[in-house]
């Protein structure tokens, strides 16, 4: 009875039951996610550096970070000469990074007494994040089941198209992770198989869809979960328009209709999904087709997918808000709201999307400036920045689909590593980690004492 209340609360907080209820603070979660991705990039570079295939440590780190962030930018010019183990590891980094290292281990986090959902919110993409199962561990298991099933299905289909099992599995890893590393110098074009190209096209688009929809479909067995998603409908419209315009431009330039449709669809899927596979050098395409592909660098896939970029849901929200403001100009007394998936009252997501787009474009501008300082031309620097931050891989000019990043100076490669990580984690996690590290290195000013 004589135990003070403060001591009693301290004992209760130290009990096992109370420790299980502890949650992780948001800034700690974001910093932990950023640190885990940096660690993954560094440790993933160890086998690459030990293989002797890379000219320097920074090249190995660049390749590893590009793999885990599913960017697909490479410093190698001859991947076919690499040992199979190295090529397999390169493609596997895409597969691991696609769904996220954090989501892979998040089922274990609640056992450590920390809030697993905060880690998932820090790692997953999109302005609105939520659990679709009661427990975060079940969420992680559902995501990985859907992810693994699609990977296995694509590997089998590629094998039926004539590829060997090694190439099939590696390209399935790269496709579902929307990465773009290949076991061949000419990427998917090396196989000369239109059937394999169509398989990769379909699965690049499937990997760009919110994986929560797959899990909901498995649970409900209703295709309506896809039809009711506003973001997916907008994504399909973007893909159809872009593929149609690219195919029309190619056909007008002398390419056969069947080949134009196949090449246009494949490259559209490759860029919009931020995969970066290649079946043709689009730098040599007609100008109209190049403009369409350049516009796709700003789009990206759906939220909750393995694709990078700004994400379609943010552009959808901003477009709806723009339409709302236009209606207000015509009807000043009109009362309206932003709707998503048929639900009203989504106005609170608009400033979140706008803030991210601003931060995204600011990082692209800073990265483009760094590229220009390193000797890249203005267009090369801009598209290289869009490729790094959007995790696309190839860009234009000397950074095009038939080139590589080996000629870049080491400081720019290091900055690109930061840009790729920031783009993969949607800016915030890497920004918070950088601020915390910088704050720890810079000594704080001591507060002045004494009478004023």
Structural class: mainly alpha
Number of strands: 0
Largest sheet: none
Question: How big a fraction of the residues is strand?
Answer: under 5%
Q: How would you spell out the order of helices and strands?
A: HHHHHHHHHHHHHHHHHHHH
Number of helices: 20
Low-pLDDT stretches: 11-21, 105-117, 446-452
Average pLDDT score? 83
Please tell me what the overall shape is.
globular
First-last Cα distance: 48 Å
Which range best describes the helical content: under 10%, 10-25%, 25-40%, 40-55%, 55-70% or over 70%? 55-70%
Radius of gyration: 23 Å
Describe the model.
There is one protein chain. This protein is mostly helical and 452 residues long. It has helices at residues 5-13, 16-19, 26-50, 57-68, 84-99, 101-105, 116-123, 136-160, 165-176, 194-207, 211-220, 224-227, 230-252, 257-272, 287-296, 312-330, 349-373, 378-389, 410-424, 428-441. The longest helix is centred in the N-terminal third of the chain and has 25 residues, at 26-50. The radius of gyration is 23 Å and the shape is globular. Mean pLDDT is 83; it is low at 11-21, 105-117 and 446-452.
């Amino acid at each position: 009875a004589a135990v003070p209340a403060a001591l009693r609360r301290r004992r209760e907080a130290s009990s096992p039951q109370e420790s299980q209820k502890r949650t992780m603070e948001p800034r700690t979660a974001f910093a932990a996610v950023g640190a885990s991705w940096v660690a993954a990039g560094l440790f993933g570079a160890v086998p690459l550096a030990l293989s002797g295939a890379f000219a320097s440590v920074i090249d190995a780190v660049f390749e590893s970070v590009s793999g885990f962030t599913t960017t697909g930018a490479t410093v190698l010019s001859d991947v076919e000469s690499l040992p199979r183990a190295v090529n397999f590891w390169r493609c596997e980094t895409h597969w691991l990074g696609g769904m996220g290292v954090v989501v892979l281990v998040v089922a274990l986090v609640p056992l450590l007494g920390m809030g697993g959902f905060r880690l998932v919110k820090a790692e997953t993409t999109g302005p609105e994040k939520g659990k679709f199962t009661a427990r975060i561990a079940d969420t992680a298991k559902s995501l990985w089941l859907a992810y693994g099933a699609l990977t296995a299905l694509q590997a089998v289909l590629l094998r039926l198209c004539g590829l060997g099992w090694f190439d099939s599995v590696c390209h399935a890893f790269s496709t579902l992770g929307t990465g773009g590393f290949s076991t061949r110098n000419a990427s998917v074009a090396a196989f000369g198989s239109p059937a394999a190209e169509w398989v990769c096209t379909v699965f690049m688009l499937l990997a760009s869809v919110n994986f929560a929809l797959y899990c909901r479909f498995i649970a409900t067995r209703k295709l309506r979960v896809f039809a009711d998603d506003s973001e997916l409908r907008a994504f399909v419209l973007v893909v159809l328009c872009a593929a149609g315009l690219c195919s029309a431009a190619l056909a007008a330039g002398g390419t056969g209709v069947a080949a134009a449709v196949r090449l246009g669809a494949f490259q559209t899927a490759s860029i919009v999904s931020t995969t970066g596979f290649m079946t043709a050098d689009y730098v040599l395409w007609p100008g109209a087709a190049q403009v369409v592909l350049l516009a796709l660098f700003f789009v990206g896939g759906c939220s909750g997918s393995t694709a990078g970029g700004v994400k379609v849901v943010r552009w959808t929200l901003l477009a709806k808000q723009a339409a709302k403001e236009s209606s207000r100009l015509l009807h000043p007394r009109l009362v309206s709201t932003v709707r998503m998936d048929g639900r009203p009252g989504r106005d609170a997501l608009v400033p979140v999307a706008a803030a991210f787009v601003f931060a995204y474009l600011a990082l692209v501008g800073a990265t483009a400036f760094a590229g220009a300082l390193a000797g890249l031309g203005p267009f090369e620097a801009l598209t290289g920045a869009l490729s790094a931050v959007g995790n696309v891989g190839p860009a234009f000019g000397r950074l095009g689909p038939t080139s590589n990043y080996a000629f870049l100076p080491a400081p720019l490669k290091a900055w690109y590593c930061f840009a790729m990580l920031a783009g993969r984690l949607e800016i915030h996690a890497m920004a918070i980690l950088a601020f915390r590290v910088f704050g720890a290195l810079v000594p704080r000013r001591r507060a002045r004492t004494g009478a004023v």
